[in-house]
Every structure is written in structure tokens, then in C-alpha cells.
Amino acid sequence: MFSVRNKKTKYQLNQKELKQNFEDIKPALSSYQAKIEANRCLYCEDAPCISACPTKINIPSFIQRIADGNLNGAAKTILDSNILGGSCARVCPTEILCEGACVRNHEPELAPVKIGKLQRHAIDHYNPQSHPYVRNKSSNKRIAIVGAGPAGLACAHQLAQLGHQVTIFDKQPKGAGLNEYGIAKYKLVDNFAQKELKFILGVGGIELKTGFQLGDNIQLDELRHDFDAVFLSLGLTKGNQLGMENENCDGMFDSLNFISDLRQAEDLTKLNIGGDIVVIGAGNTAIDVACQTKRLGAENVTLVYRKGTAQMSATTKEQAFAKQNGVKIITWAQPHKLQVENNKIKAIEFEVTELDKQNKLKGTSSYFTVQTDSVYKAIGQSFDDACFHGNQRPQIEHGKIYVDDNLKTSLNNVWAGGDCINLGEDLTVQAVAHGKQAADSIHQSLITHSEG
């Protein structure tokens, strides 16, 4: 159980309490537990768990290696399909992916094999004598990748193995993208994102340049001219707004910025967290913000969503975790008015909502008020296409970059993947799959042009 603020004294949590609150929420399996769990796998011949994994990891194969005591072999099996298998084991919603498809979900057990924890066990105990991946002979081809997140890193690693020279540009001071700046602090601990990044770069042939932002100090037209191919893994960097009067007052915060600041903070006691928090949203980001503010010492944290729990994009497991953390969840309510004094948020008035006969959301003209000193907006993110200003632009469709089945954009030497395109789910493992697919497509295109 984590520490909470004393309601009577409202004392600030100390370093020890905060450290406890942000320890790994998914403790690793012991060797004994991993052995027992691995032996629960039926090693299905046509395993549904493989189909449910966007990177198509051979799950029965790596689990059987764990059962046989071959942890290096298990880890290599995972990494061959998903070079970010370590972080995915920690952050993926396995309950709706591989574990959700596990045949052990059926009677009599009704409990899937703990695939995510077994994957983490294998990666955490991987100890090769040398780097397991070796580059092919140099192709003399240069590829620029914009964005050092999961899609960009997976693409870079694949292309580097194939003998190409890769340069990754990222606007942040550190690489790893979402895993470094956008994941709840208690989900990726012990600087894991940077350790994984170092391993990926260890294949060679990849140069990481930080502090470079597309549309600012690098331009797409220049990259297309200077490199043989460009891969865009830009993510969704623009937080959606409520569109309400006084929305820019003090006490209104963007959820992505909060998560980033929290992950990069060296001293959590210096983070100024209010006592009464309201989080507006229904996704995993909203859950992450709500739970982390609670663990930082907020006295009351209320998450409000305009529809019901069944419509929330956060998984049922995440919703349950929020309640375990003392987060109050209010559904069927939408923000109506911000109550502001001296440019500081004091309360939010919400309108009760419902679905009409056409299944469309509508207000009911019934209102209630929640007192608050801090509001976090977590109503989704959108792609910011301002990065293309002044350059030839790829086609944008439904607010994201359009790509074909090979992840190629409308521009002749530009590919894209990850959250900035409309294919698949906005998941870390999906981004990795995009990176690999784009790398293969880029490689085939370069080979074809060289032969031609």
C-alpha cells in the first residue's frame, strides 16, 4: 500500500514515502515463479497469443525456453521480433492482447498464462557474451528518422542490421520518446528506457541527434534532399483543448507535460501538487495522471468522463487500478463552466449527460460542481502538422499522416509510423511493429532503385 497525505495535517510526503509510491507496480517474477508459470503454457500449435501480438513474437517458443532454463534463448526469441520487448513487457495492455487471447482464459482455470511477466523475466535475465545483432555490409545508403520513440528505434535497428546508415533526430534532450517522457513513472522504473536505448544503439550504424525539431532547426525538404529515405515517427504531441472560457487560467494543466515533468524530476518533493485534483478524460493517460497525482499526495482526485465506463478507452484493469489508488470516477458528465477567481481555477461546473434515441451524447440541463485547485486535461492528443510548414507536405487524412499498406506516405521517399498514422492502435507494441514494417519497405525500395 502506498503512503497518502494526512487529511488533518496535510503534511507534504517525504522522500521515503514518495519513493515507495513510485516503485515498480508490477514486481518481477522470481525464478521459481517464472518456472511454474512457464509450465502452465500449453505450447499451442496455432497459438492465438501470437496472432494477438502486433509484433508476432513466438510466445510459446520463448516460454518453452524459460521452462527449459534457457533464458538467453527465450530473450533472443523475443528480441528477434520486438527489439523493445523489455519495455513492451512492462507497459503493454497484455490483458487485451496476448493474455486476452490465451486459451487458459477458458474453463476450468479462467486465468491466462502471465505472458507479460514471463517476457519481462526473460529480458531482465538476458546476458549474452556479445551484442546479439551484427550489421550487414554497408549499403552506402543513408536514412533519416525523425523521432526517437518506439517506432523510430525499431525502424532504426532493423535498417542498421541491413547495412544502412541511420541518423535519428529527436527534439528532446534524451532519446526513447514515449518510454522516456510519456509513461507513468511507476511503470518504467530504474532508468529502463535509457538502458533499452543503449542496447538498441549497440548494433552500430545509428547516430542519435537530440535537440532537433522538425519544422524548426531541421526541415523535411532538407532531409529528403540529404538522405535516401526519411521515416517520420512524430507521435501525437498536441493535447486537445476543452474550448472553454478561461481555459488558460492558473491551475489548468496538460497531462502529457505533467507526465513528462514527473518522469524527469530528480526530487519529487519539489513538485507542487494541489490537494483537490480533477482529471478530465477516459484513456490510459487520464488514469496515469489521476493515479500519479494521488501518489504524489493529492488529497482528493476525481476523474470525470462524459460517457460511461463501458465507453472508456482505458482498459478495465486500468480503471480498477485507479479505484485501488483512491481515485473517484464520475461518468456521464461533461465540463460546462470553469469557475475562476483572480485568474485561478476554483471549481468546475459539470453538466450531466446521456445518450439520445440516436445514440448521440446530449446534455440534460442538470448540473453539479466539483471544487478543485488543479485540473488536468487528458481528452486525447492530435497530430501537429505545423512541422511541415514551408515544406512539401505528405497527405494528411483524418488528422494524421496518410500511408499506404507499406507505410509509405504520398511523398516519394518518405515513410511514417507510430501514433502519427491511422493504422492500428496507439500502443507501444504497435509502434514497434510499424517501425519494423517501414524498415522492410524502405530497404526493398532502396534495393529496387539500386538495381534499377
Which terms would index this structure?
about 450 residues; Fumarate Reductase Iron-sulfur Protein, Chain B, domain 2; FAD/NAD(P)-binding domain; 3 domains; 5-stranded parallel sheet; 16 helices
The average pLDDT score comes to: 95
CATH topology (fold) name of the largest domain? FAD/NAD(P)-binding domain
Helix content range: 25-40%
What is the CATH top level name of the largest domain? Alpha Beta
Number of strands: 17
What is the CA-CA span between the terminal residues? 64 Å
What sort of overall outline do the alpha carbons produce when their principal axes are compared? globular
Write the layout of secondary structure elements.
Elements lengths: L14 H7 L9 H8 L9 H5 L6 H9 L3 H11 L3 H7 L6 H4 L13 H10 L17 E5 L3 H12 L3 E6 L7 H4 L10 H10 L4 E5 L9 H7 L2 E4 L5 E2 L12 E3 H10 L11 E6 L2 H12 L4 E5 L11 H9 L3 E3 L2 E9 L2 E12 L5 E11 L2 E5 L2 E2 L13 E2 L2 E2 L12 E3 L11 H24 L1
Parallel strand pairs: 1-2, 1-4, 2-3, 4-17, 6-13, 7-8, 7-13, 8-9
Antiparallel strand pairs: 5-14, 10-11, 11-12, 15-16
Helix pairs in contact: 2-4, 4-5, 4-8, 5-8, 6-8, 9-16, 13-14, 14-15
Written overview of the protein:
By secondary structure, this protein is of the alpha/beta class. It has three domains: 27-124, Fumarate Reductase Iron-sulfur Protein, Chain B, domain 2 (Orthogonal Bundle), CATH 1.10.1060; 142-237 and 383-451, FAD/NAD(P)-binding domain; 239-381, FAD/NAD(P)-binding domain (3-Layer(bba) Sandwich). 33% of the residues lie in helices and 19% in strands. It has helices at 15-21, 31-38, 48-52, 59-67, 71-81, 85-91, 98-101, 115-124, 150-161, 178-181, 192-201, 220-226, 255-264, 284-295, 316-324, 428-451; strands spanning 142-146, 165-170, 206-210, 229-232, 238-239, 252-254, 276-281, 300-304, 328-330, 333-341, 344-355, 361-371, 374-378, 381-382, 396-397, 400-401, 414-416. The strands form five sheets. Strands 3-2-1-4-17 form a five-stranded parallel beta sheet, sandwiched between helices. The protein has a five-stranded parallel beta sheet with strand order 6-13-7-8-9. Strand 10 (333-341) and strand 11 (344-355) form a beta hairpin. Helix 2 crosses helix 4 (59-67) and helix 14 (284-295) runs parallel beside helix 15 (316-324). It is globular and about 65 Å long. The chain starts with 14 loop residues before the first helix and ends with a helix. 44% of the residues are buried. The model has no long low-confidence stretch (mean pLDDT 95).
